[in-house]
Amino acid sequence: MISILRGLAVIWFVFTLVFMSVRLLPSDPIMADANSGRLTTEQVEARRQQLGLNKPIHQQYFDYLANVLQGNWGYSFVSSESVRDLVWGRLGPTMALAFGSFGIALFIGIGLGIAAVSNNRLISHCADVCIAISQAIPIYVSALLGIYLFSLKLNWFPSGGSSTPIHLILPCSILGFHTASPLASVLRTNLKVTYGSPYILTAHAKGLYPIDILEHALRVAILPTVSVLALQAGFLLSGT
Questions:
Q1: Would you state the pLDDT for residue 131?
Q2: d(CA 147, CA 124)
């Protein structure tokens, strides 16, 4: 119950911060149109009255909260479309891209994290290099290189669109690769620490197979990665 109340308090704080940030700006879209000569003085006053900008600040705040809770998010100043319709219209492609990227990130991240602690030096070195590349190269550079190579040169995947599943393969792969690096890094570190634990050393002494030892180590090492997964999921949902 306390966690729910804290979550509601955070949401209320964010709404309030957004409202105050917009109201503290020295201008607004209506004044911008007026300064550009696209609106007359009478039209400016009519628009301000229509949007409730002529009301006291506290009344604007309560109207703002009421409209948000009722799903009345207003209209876009650019396209004049309903903001709610704009959000819902883009929610499907966003969710498809986010979940596809998250699945690939989970697969790559766990795979690289396990490979990085392999007894085979070549495998562990290659995994470390992949993690370093994922962290070092900006995602927009990888995206441009991916479009140039796989879309323009090899013509394997389309360079844009979201009408079919094949349109999601390239962006999901690039996003998943970059999203996997924090997961792989945390898992690699936790596995190295876990492999030095007494119960893992005892398992080695008993002659357990490496796959069985890895299974025991993963049960402990995978737990701290849950918080990383939550952060990366938030990044994918908000940034795609």
A1: 84
A2: 29
